[in-house]
Amino acid sequence: MGLCESTLPQLGRALRPQEKDILRYPLIIFVVGGPGCGKGTQCRNMALKYGFYHVELGQLLREEAQRSTQRGRQIRDIMQKGLLVPTGLILDMISDNLLSYPKIRGFLIDGFPRELEQAKEFERIVGRAPNMVIVFDCSMETMVRRVLRRGQVEHRADDSEPAIRKRLETHYTLCEPVLTFYQQKNLLRHILAEEAPESIFAKCCSVIESLL
Length: 212
Ligand code: AMP
Description:
Elements: H1 17-22, E1 27-32, H2 39-50, E2 53-56, H3 57-65, H4 70-80, H5 87-100, E3 106-110, H6 116-126, E4 132-137, H7 140-154, H8 161-184, E5 188-192, H9 197-209
Parallel strand pairs: 1-3, 1-4, 2-3, 4-5
Helix pairs in contact: 2-9, 3-4, 5-6, 7-8
Adenosine monophosphate (AMP) binds next to helix 3 and helix 4.
GO molecular function, one term: AMP kinase activity
Pfam families: ADK
Family: Belongs to the adenylate kinase family.
């Protein structure tokens, strides 16, 4: 899904054996779901409650996209079109974040993986699978409604209507193989994310506590 003409890294940096060793012990939880499913809010709450570090890829990318560098401009262009940034860049961001907090109990990686290549690359580069993959299930109508509301409040460039349509299409096209991949490893935990945030949080807590 990466743009071939971009100069953004297409392949992630391979980790050294000592770095892989550091990442053998903390809990690593991936959190996936379409735009507006509420994963960002729930990850923030879970991170606070369990002392996990929240790797918020969308937010880190939005920060990069604001820089007036060639890299910033390329990221901004991809995000405004509702496309995915190249896997290499994502993997480098994840490994840098994980290695910066070697003593932490666990990581919540929010918005990853968004396509099968990312899931496989993570295992190749980090040398292990996640402990769990939480999936926020939400109807298209709910997601569109939430994202449009957020767009009015936060003025996020990628919450415009054409970008949302493309983000949803990207999500629905690419997420199925990811879910199948983790279903086969018995790592998927589905959470119905249509209700009030407090009841979704209670469900998140019970899946997290099954790991502790
Ligand atoms: P989010 O805030 O999670 O909805 O992400 C906002 C945007 O960031 C997405 O539409 C993508 O352009 C980009 N993005 C976030 N996570 C990833 C990822 N794992 N792989 C590629 N692009 C991503």
